[in-house]
Amino acid sequence: MTDFSATRALFDLPPDLIYLDGNSLGPLPKAAPARMEQAMREEWGAMLIGGWNKAGWMEQPRALGDRIGRLIGAEPGHTVVGDTLSIKVFQALAACVEMRPDRRVILSDTGNFPSDLYMAEGLIRMLGGRHELRLVDPEAVEDAITEELAAILITEVDYRTGRRHDMPRLTAKAHAVGALTIWDLAHSAGALPVEVGRGGADFACGCTYKYLNAGPGAPAFIYVAPRHAGRAVPALSGWLGHRAPFAFEPSYRAGDGIDRMRVGTPPVLALAALDAALDVWDTVDMATLRQESLRLTDRFIAGVEAACPELEVVTPREHDRRGSQVSFRHPEGYAAMQALIARGVVGDFRAPDIMRFGVTPLFIDEADIDRAITIIGAVMNERLYDAPLYRTRSAVT
Ligand SMILES: *Cc1c(COP(=O)(O)O)cnc(C)c1O
């Protein structure tokens, strides 16, 4: 069981704000500033270079990886933190392509986050352009899994619509044709229970600044299935992925297991914030979190539909087919979202016309949902978005 009023008290949120954007940037855990201050003053300030040994900085990427591992159903010792998600996608993909040298096709879908696709394009270019990134509609992924594939690169929950892929099913199909699977958990980790181990994922990666609340630019994580851990060859062969980093050998030897997915120096200060953010998760049962997320999202969908019929729900209604966000389509979506933000309901906008609301039970409750519905109803029905002020686009939408 999880006490969600207790978890809510662990976040520093402005009063009266309904923050439905924890799927994009989680809020500040109250314990994070003191934990960072401690890392700065007591570790960096007082220990200087000694912090690497005395404060355990070097081991943190593995230790924090395991704490995330619990949330995604990973076997202990097979998840590591570092770099950014785009880089982790590249690493996983490069390893897969090398593990399937006779295959030339990488499959993804048109709903995937662009950076994942761009990283695949860059890798293919580097490999001489002999591979193909094949993109199909999300609904067509299953039928497109064929023996040509080296790997499928799939984001479990669509960042725009909130639609969720059936991970065990697609993984089983990929394995049946000899393809590997890379699951991007950007909108899954901390959003719903994930079982990378039992589900058979070969590689998985995700970020920690969304549902895990570790702060802007917080590092990513990568999981490699135990059966591949000693065989996956890192394309980004940095010194901290070396078997003996402090032997300073002139040539690369891959480290043990998941250690080889490390690249360079860990972001120690950012890891302090992640550490504090993960303390919140230690009290959370993922099954209870999912129940609450579904209860709140059901309520939100029903309420918004009743209040403003002109908003079209694009998130699937079936529980199994969605993550923890709700998206609506509206031609004035951008201006409408700015008008909502001005009234204390913070979601975001994704081109061309998607209004996105993340529902995060750690700090959003039924009263927030009901208040949000009332404000959304007023903004849409009274066309309160119809003002020049709401039409100016910022760089980040
Ligand atoms: C948020 C997100 C990213 C972002 O990658 P960064 O390297 O952390 O900027 C990548 N992929 C998906 C699917 C995402 O949702």
TrEMBL record:
EC number(s) from the headed UniProt entry: 3.7.1.3
Coiled coil: none
Binding site for pyridoxal 5'-phosphate: L85, S86, F113, P114, S115, D116, T155, D184, H187, Y209, W239, T265
Enzyme class: hydrolase
N6-(pyridoxal phosphate)lysine PTM positions: K210
Biological process annotations from GO: anthranilate metabolic process; L-kynurenine catabolic process; L-tryptophan catabolic process to kynurenine; NAD+ biosynthetic process; quinolinate biosynthetic process
Cofactor: pyridoxal 5'-phosphate
One Pfam family, short name: KYNU_C
GO cellular component, one term: cytoplasm
Transmembrane segments: none
Catalytic reaction equation(s): L-kynurenine + H2O = anthranilate + L-alanine + H(+); 3-hydroxy-L-kynurenine + H2O = 3-hydroxyanthranilate + L-alanine + H(+)
Domain of life: Bacteria
Gene Ontology molecular-function annotations: kynureninase activity; pyridoxal phosphate binding
Pathway: Amino-acid degradation; L-kynurenine degradation; L-alanine and anthranilate from L-kynurenine: step 1/1; Cofactor biosynthesis; NAD(+) biosynthesis; quinolinate from L-kynurenine: step 2/3
InterPro entries per the UniProt record, alphabetical: Kynureninase, PyrdxlP-dep_Trfase, PyrdxlP-dep_Trfase_major, PyrdxlP-dep_Trfase_small
Keywords, comma-separated and alphabetical: Hydrolase, Pyridine nucleotide biosynthesis, Pyridoxal phosphate
Complexes and interactors: Homodimer.
Function description: Catalyzes the cleavage of L-kynurenine (L-Kyn) and L-3-hydroxykynurenine (L-3OHKyn) into anthranilic acid (AA) and 3-hydroxyanthranilic acid (3-OHAA), respectively.
Family label: Belongs to the kynureninase family.
Protein name: Kynureninase
Species of origin: Rubellimicrobium rubrum
